[in-house]
Amino acid sequence: MDDFEVFEDLFAFEPDYAYGEQTINKILKCRRSMENQLFIDRLLKTLGIEQATALYPPRSNQNLRTLHHEIVTSPSPDHHKQSVLYYILRDIPDKDANHPSTFATAVFLPPRYRIFMDGIWFLDHGKFARALDYLTEPVLIPTFTEEILYTFCTHPDQRDEKLALAYYYCASPAITSTKVLEAFFEVLASTSVTEALFWARKQGEASHRGLFEQLVGGVLDGVEGEERARRSVELIYLPFSKKEEVWFEAYLTGGEGRELSGADDTLAVRKMVVGRSSAIAGEEKGSVESKSNGMGWSSMRSSYEKI
Asked: Is the confidence at residue 290, as pLDDT, over 80?
């Protein structure tokens, strides 16, 4: 390759190349599924290209030439420009002369940039397990880590909680956004109520109570059945701190949790578990014995008696 800044050199395999309609539609569909922002959009903006969504995917050969021109004339370092061009070459059906690895080798693209772009390309295209393989490589410089974690947690086609947890524990992203914090906590709580409680305690005073209430609400608002009963029993037997004990009762009696199905029964059983049975001595037996969508005293009692 003579010069990556010259379109005819980079696309020497087919200077008139244009994205096919099927490729364009697939990219647009992927963008919609990612809240209208692909990671390539973010990368183009880091190059100073503000009209990223208008330029990518390119609808014609002339659009592709315009995108190439915007990339190579940006004031960014060459390896940043080359990384984005490497991503674009991944979009193109395999041709020996334009294979992305050939380009990466020709321009001496650093391995960590290539690995990151491979991961981002797979993530943008909804191939989450493959993306994880690349995005958890130790050599990577932390880039868009919160956004990547959020995608693993919330993408409608990503239904494997283990991938989000694996990315979090491997990449150790610093979570500063409330949106990302709550999204990850929901995934964590769906896999382990106990682990979620202890994790919430490490997030600082400002977030602790909100996450605690999210945990309680998520358990009680789950789909009725054995799994909901099991998670409710796990919640009831957790070793709350004094503050959490107060928050638990306040949430289920005066907070947003008071309208949740099984709130009264859950609080009553919790009081019995921690030895405050006198606190419910005056409550009507019917309240305790009631059953609300699979979350009544009877179902919880039968569940925890098996522990």
From this structure: no
